[in-house]
Design brief:
homodimer, alpha/beta, Rossmann fold, 25 helices, 7-stranded mixed beta sheet, NAD(P)-bd_dom_sf (chains A, B), 5 domains
Chain lengths: ~700, ~700
């Protein structure tokens, strides 16, 4: 079913009943009625409470069944143990949606989980969509629908705007409402999802994507139980050109522990979330400040930046340098202005620095038009994706103020899609004025640069462009995985990899000494000989591997030695023969792997062999499947890429072939889906440019019976 | 001369003359007089201007000579070209100090540099100390001495306090004054040094160290011309237990370029500044926000934290996790509270998370004493070095407010040295109230954690403990460096390293085939043979090296082949023989190096060989000389240290011997001082624990004639 149609009656209800309606100011059954009345909600409001006649002047009903109307939304503010009974008093088909404020469900352990399951089952049977339980509810700002018991709006409403906000945590949600109000950030919706028995953050992202009044989505995620749904939602937002900024807690070991003890949701492996957000074009914010800075910046400039070149104008050369440091840290370039632009500035301020950062010096306070003229000169070059201005204490100069307003208005009119930040000490009302005219104000210039870098590096997720329907991919790779569980032997593993289009080393399996000699002779070079047994994962440890063998006699000896070593070490292992492959030398050892994340499915890893993986953990991840371009970005994320690029004089490796192989592996992993636990290709050799790659060893482990 | 005595008359003047005194509001000759009068400066004020009778009601003098008194401080606010003439009208001995506001000196090129030199020479002759030129002057907040033309104090004075601030940049200085005022951060002194013709940031740090009213020093540095002076100043502050927080611009390539174009000062190599600040115990801040956050935190808690354990209390589990993420990023630990503490909390709030982060849930707003009780319980364990509390929007709850004030007051009274931060949305007057009661308030909880981490990791610099007088060290290593310039040959280089206490491989130099055979026979193992010539730095490239040679014939062949290869490739090279050393195998290849920084002298580098240095640039630096403890911290800074520690199963290397060697190298480098350009020991082998190290190759390059 289409989320949009279904959730429309929830998020834009024409009628609202409140279970547990109360006249007691501040109670969860009172706050929403007070807010709805005060805000001028135009739909019908039905207080429900058998112990009240009137609530906030409205006639009160004893039960839902006493209301003759159908009801778009029931707000539930009665204790957890009474929720189900109260709902059961409604008529089948009478209620379309419910939001449950009450806590005491899954978040408090087994008894609560049972209550939540009963509620969920009842709602599902009656086709009622559920928000919560244990949530703060939601606000449809434009329609004045305050289905929340958060007292935050009582201290001041925030303006309607185009940012849709969804947060799993209620405490954070209330804080976020206040922060948005303090920043004068207009919201379309504010939604808290709580225990997510039915509707989760992904549903809300999907809904906000389809909402015509929402241009930017801010999502605060604690855990995710349905990875595919989140992928679809992020992909939809991406395709619709609605940027998503997301904060996901539980990034580090300490954080994840805290997250796990806090919610019933799975905190998940953080590298997987990083990959997810990267691939689906969501911007990850690491602090609450950054979450808001980026969200607010996107609401002004939702389009992708034309370039990663930044222009800086400062009245202090030193602080200009500090801003340049920050730009460098965040991979923004500071190309110098063209000669004529520099000359024009120097003609007016001889001791300015006309380079980028442009240091207009304190003179800018004497010749007040210099800031606007220089800004226009810089932006007219078409060279810069954004402009950051630092005015120090001069921001509070009365003489400068009208010029500052003009500067922002004119630049915004001429370059509405170019982010412009002002860093200065300004009183709150002036900050608001400049922000309304089209710029953003940051007291700390480094924060301005950091925020700009986040939106300037933002690109649509590759996955938005991929046809990512499961069917298309699965057809392409019709994988024949032998039945059973546990590891496949090396020969079977390599064959599956080869059939998936991965260049594996030539090999044959011998089951007699004579066959081993024949095979080795055909390779006409020293060979590697390895035991073939699904029961033996660490072949070398038990003498199951011999390398660099040449000559009939040596092959025969090796054959026998391997068999007897293995027989001694693991007499019960099911041995299927000896794999023989030519020895390889040269190239760069890499590692590719796949593991199956319980929430997001197969995840592909890439790294260079040896210390890069073992000591430095220099690896990158992506969710399967992905294309060569994504694989390239994955390879370039590792520190070791300079080794592959041949920057140390040893000649470049075939990075394109590595990327093709990673993409092929990701397709294979996706087609295999949850039939496997992991795939390891270790090592896979990156040969010199143009010569491809060669997988020398591989093992596929099927899912164990659960 | 003692900086303190000399600068006392500058920074606490009893009499001030103003050259260029003016009645025109806002002019640089008017602002200081207006500020001094308004602030109630108690010394004498002498306006000087031949075209005025009275200035701000005070009698005006035609020239300095017209003033019969001696003058502690002359403020110079006349155009650059008139400065010297105006000063020359004073009587010898009449003036003790001058601060020059005027720009148009070294910062504007050659003509200005000449003016500055003339001014400097005159002042030196008359024994006048100079602040500036091209500076904003200074403020002695306690004594109401406003020797500045910055209009910032006109819009509101900041309170007297114990933070001394010195900034090289005037624009930044004015901004910093306003920021301090906005944060209600009390200053003892505010000083801007400008072109630093005489007094520089280091002098001011030294002065602030000796000032009894200053407890914390905030320094903003653009460049440094006298490294030794800065070292001495930082060392003095360190010894006096006065923490220094420093922002140094020009951290990255872009920043350094901007810095160079802005000041006449040398931006310096940033790795050297990092080493300097680390060794001398200064805290480096990377943004203006951090500069102030750390400065303000230090002014509350100047003592070093008792532990790097942090306690977190949050009313939102999710944000608690976010804070835990940040703590993890900054290497703070979050140990769980003892069982009894957990039990007490859970008895009151069954669904709390009593782990660390402690999630008191929204219940904390119902049971209002829970925050204080839990905080006291946590701190009473003695386990935690700091406490961070997150209250979300609840901070603005009227019911909570008295409890919040009590919380901060009680905790501050009981644990005055334990940093406590509150993160909440609060109006400015409440932020001020809580900060005055002893905590710090950060709207963004991640910023709270980051700031805490900076002060909790702060340790006194090692150099404060070292006897770092040049003489002591130089005596210890009386180094016999052969005269001349350029490279020493390998044999001479290794000999110097060996005499300095570094374990070099045994070697001998043969000048005949027979001698070569003798030497090789004595080593009774395969040998390495290398050409000895100061003219040949890259020996392998021209066939000057043969490895793994054994047997008389092979040695003889190798001897002749090396000589003829070298003769062909570099016929003019001065060949001094063939160095013969036993072959080594095993151990881990490391690299040690020294280069001579023009400002800070010899800098020592450490890294692991191969890709660690070449691909990953995984190296660390320290200023010479340093001890074994500092060398250990240097080794542990590299990513590759886990390889040395044997964490990958290959057995630990002799890290202690590596550290001894680095310390010895640093002593040698310090003793050699600017007689050398560089030293390279590459490779030096770290043998297994207890077996020491072995330097296999080394080259010392003497300073070229300049």
């Amino acid at each position: 079913m289409n989320t949009c149609q279904t959730l429309n009656s929830l998020f834009s209800p024409k009628s609202i009943a409140i279970l547990g309606a109360s006249n007691a100011t501040g109670k969860s059954g009172a706050v929403p009625i007070a807010l709805l009345l005060d805000a001028g909600y135009t739909g019908k409001i039905y207080p429900v409470n058998p112990r009240q006649d009137r609530v906030y002047g409205l006639p009160c009903h004893a039960s839902l069944n006493d209301i003759s109307d159908t009801i778009d939304l029931v707000i539930i503010a009665v204790p957890a143990v009474h929720v189900l009974a109260a709902l059961e008093q409604s008529r089948p088909g009478q209620i379309r949606n419910a939001v449950t404020f009450t806590s005491g469900f899954a978040e408090v352990g087994d008894a609560g989980s049972q209550l939540q399951q009963q509620l969920h089952a009842f709602a599902r049977e009656r086709r009622i969509r559920l928000l919560g339980p244990n949530c703060l509810g939601f606000i449809n700002v434009r329609d004045h629908t305050y289905a929340t018991f958060s007292p935050a709006p009582l201290n001041g409403r925030l303006p309607a705007g185009d940012v849709g906000m969804v947060t799993q945590s209620g405490a954070f949600g209330a804080y976020a409402y206040c922060l948005a109000r303090e920043r004068n950030l207009g919201l379309s919706f504010w939604i808290s999802t709580g225990n997510e028995s039915d509707i989760d953050v992904a549903d809300c992202i999907q809904w906000l994507t389809e909402d015509p009044h929402t241009r930017v989505i801010m999502a605060y995620i604690e855990g995710c139980k349905d990875g595919d749904k989140l992928k679809r939602a992020l992909s939809a937002a991406n395709s619709a050109g609605k940027p998503v900024v997301v904060t996901k807690i539980g990034r580090t070991a300490s954080g994840a522990q805290a997250a796990a003890s806090h919610t019933a949701a799975l905190a998940g492996d953080d590298a997987v979330y990083d990959a997810l957000f990267k691939q689906y074009g969501a911007i990850r914010a690491y602090t609450i400040d950054e979450f808001f800075n980026v969200g607010q910046a996107l609401s002004k400039w939702p389009h992708h930046a034309a370039s990663q070149n930044l222009a800086i104008i400062s009245i202090s050369g030193g602080v200009g340098a500090l801003m340049a440091d920050e730009a460098d840290d965040h991979h923004l370039s500071l190309p110098a202005p063209p000669d004529d632009v520099q000359a024009r500035l120097l003609a007016r301020i001889p001791f300015a620095s006309a380079n980028n950062p442009v240091d207009v010096t304190g003179q800018a306070l004497t010749d007040l038009s210099i800031l606007l003229d220089t800004s226009r000169d810089l932006l007219a070059t078409g060279k810069y994706g954004a402009l950051a201005i630092f005015l120090a204490a001069a921001g509070s100069s009365e003489a400068l103020w009208p010029h500052l307003q003009e500067l922002v208005s004119v630049l915004h009119a001429e370059y509405p899609n170019t982010p412009i930040t002002i860093s200065a000490l300004l009183p709150p009302e002036r900050i608001t004025a400049l922000q309304e005219k089209g710029s953003m104000v940051f007291a700390d210039p480094s924060t301005a640069i950091r925020t700009l870098s986040r939106i300037m590096h933002h690109r649509p997720g590759k996955r938005a462009a991929l046809s990512c329907g499961k069917e298309a991919v699965a057809q392409k790779t019709n994988v024949n995985l032998p039945g059973g569980t546990g590891a496949l032997n090396e020969a079977d593993s390599l064959t599956i990899l080869k059939n998936a289009g991965i260049a594996v080393t030539p090999f044959s399996v011998a089951t007699t000494k004579a066959a081993a000699q024949d095979i080795a002779r055909q390779f006409s070079c020293p060979v590697a000989m390895k035991i073939v047994s699904a029961d033996i994962l660490h072949k070398s440890d038990i003498g199951g591997v011999k390398l660099g063998i040449s000559g009939d006699d040596a092959v025969a000896d090796a054959y026998l030695e391997i068999l007897s070593s293995v027989q001694r070490a693991q007499p019960l292992a099911d041995v299927e023969g000896i794999l023989i492959a030519p020895m390889h030398s040269g190239g760069i050892e890499c590692i590719m792997g796949v593991y199956c994340d319980p929430v997001f499915g197969p995840v592909v890893m890439f790294g260079l062999g040896g210390i890069f993986v073992e000591v430095l953990k220099d690896v990158s991840f992506r969710l399967a499947p992905f294309d060569q371009a994504e694989a390239l970005s994955m390879i370039h994320e590792t520190q070791a890429v300079s080794l592959l690029k041949g920057e140390r004089g040893q000649g470049a490796a075939d990075i394109a072939a590595l990327a093709d192989t990673l993409a092929a592996l990701s397709q294979l992993a996706y087609a295999l889906g949850d039939r496997i636990e992991s795939i390891d290709i270790n090592p896979i050799i990156a040969l010199p440019q143009g010569q491809g790659v060669r997988a020398l060893d591989g093992v596929i482990i099927r899912k164990s019976a659960s």
